[in-house]
Structure formats: structure tokens, C-alpha cells
Structure to design on (228 residues):
């Protein structure tokens, strides 16, 4: 059974850093296209970043230069390092596995809430 | 990259059909056949309902169908059921390894 479990969310002050983790089971992260998608409270979905199986990474303009997506193959886990956090980064962060031939996100975790506030 | 435009709400009675539009530009919806639709119940993660404009993942009822014309994609839910009441989001590839989601539509089953 495929499962994605995000952890690492919490309350953080503006300008701070946080690392989110997404532990996968039932498939191999290193062979997959993995994304982070976020949803601000009461708002819509926003794509954040993608990590391809070959190692290439891409980011939304809103987080470029501040967020870093990575993975640990030995732990079958995806990460999102978030630096210089702003109030507008407050959201539930989901990790998701994408179809390799499409931009459709097939499997999603339950999400982890990040709140940026002083 | 601007969000795709969806109507805030749509509704229908059980057994009826409802169609949700998703309007973008020639740089996203109009330029690629990579439109997806997601269903999200309150407090839950999104669920993929349609991909590549009109394909259904395994397990998704054939009551859900998708189409595209120009810069606008559509999701139709036929034979509405109570469990179809949820938020629906479209999504499209927008070039340069970028993805854009729609503003979301709340579907109410009357």
C-alpha cells in the first residue's frame, strides 16, 4: 500500500527555518517524480517544488532561493528545507508523487501545517 | 504564474449533472494536454480525479469526465451523489517545469 507521511510542521517566527519530511512507503522515492504542494488556510492549492528521479529540481517563483527540495534514498524520504520564512508561507504542506509522463499528482500525504508568526 | 480561473461555486440536485470550468491561457491549458482535476473534502488531502484532460485513474467512477477546448478545461460530474460534495481544483502544466492550480470550486449537492 502506498503511503506518504509528512512531519516537521509547526509554529516558526518570520525569518526562521524549518525542514519538512515526507516518509514514503509502497514505492521508491528515488525512482519517482516528487512534488511539494501547499495550501494556505481557507485558500487554494499552490505548487511549490518538484524533484525528478534524475535529481533535477524546480521551484515556484514565490519560494525560489529560499526553499530546497531533496531526498534521502536510504530513508526513502523527501524533504523541504524552508529558510527565510514569511507570513505568506503559512500553509498546509503536502508531498505528492507525480506521474512521470504527466503533471498529475497521483498520491498525496495528509499534510503538515506550517505557521509563520511572531 | 497566475492561478487558473474557476467559478467559486456550483451546485446540483442528486442525479443531476454539474460542469465546472477552468480558464487559463495559451501558456498553460491551451498549450499542453496536461490538465488534471482534484477533489478535496474538508480537512483531507486532494484526490486525483482526472489527468491528461480526460483520463480517469483506476477507481474513479466514470461519472467524472474531463474535456478541453482552447484555453478552457471542464470537469463534468454526472449523476451527482452526496459524496461528490467537495472542493474541486484544476491544474495544468505551465511550461518551464512549472505547474499552476485553479482557484477552486465548491460543489454543493442540494
Amino acid at each position: 500500500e502506498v503511503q506518504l507521511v509528512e512531519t516537521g510542521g509547526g509554529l516558526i517566527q518570520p525569518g526562521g527555518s524549518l525542514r519538512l519530511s515526507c516518509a514514503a512507503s509502497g514505492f521508491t522515492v528515488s525512482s519517482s517524480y516528487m512534488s511539494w504542494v501547499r495550501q494556505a488556510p481557507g485558500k487554494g492549492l499552490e505548487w511549490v517544488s518538484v524533484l525528478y528521479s534524475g535529481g533535477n529540481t524546480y521551484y515556484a517563483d514565490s519560494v525560489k532561493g529560499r526553499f530546497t527540495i531533496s531526498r534521502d534514498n536510504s530513508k526513502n524520504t523527501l524533504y523541504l528545507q524552508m529558510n527565510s520564512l514569511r507570513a505568506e508561507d503559512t500553509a498546509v504542506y503536502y508531498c505528492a508523487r507525480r506521474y512521470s509522463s504527466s503533471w498529475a499528482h497521483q498520491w498525496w500525504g495528509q499534510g503538515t501545517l506550517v505557521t509563520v508568526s511572531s | 504564474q497566475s492561478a487558473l480561473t474557476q467559478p467559486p461555486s456550483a451546485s446540483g440536485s442528486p442525479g443531476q449533472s454539474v460542469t465546472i470550468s477552468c480558464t487559463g491561457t495559451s501558456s498553460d491549458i491551451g498549450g499542453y494536454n496536461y490538465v488534471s482535476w482534484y477533489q478535496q473534502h474538508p480537512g483531507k488531502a486532494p484526490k486525483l480525479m482526472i489527468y491528461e484532460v480526460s483520463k480517469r485513474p483506476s477507481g474513479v467512477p466514470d461519472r467524472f469526465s474531463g474535456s478541453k477546448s482552447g484555453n478552457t478545461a471542464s470537469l463534468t460530474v454526472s449523476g451527482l451523489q452526496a459524496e461528490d460534495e467537495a472542493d474541486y481544483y484544476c491544474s495544468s502544466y505551465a511550461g518551464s517545469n512549472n505547474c499552476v492550480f485553479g482557484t477552486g470550486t465548491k460543489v454543493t449537492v442540494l
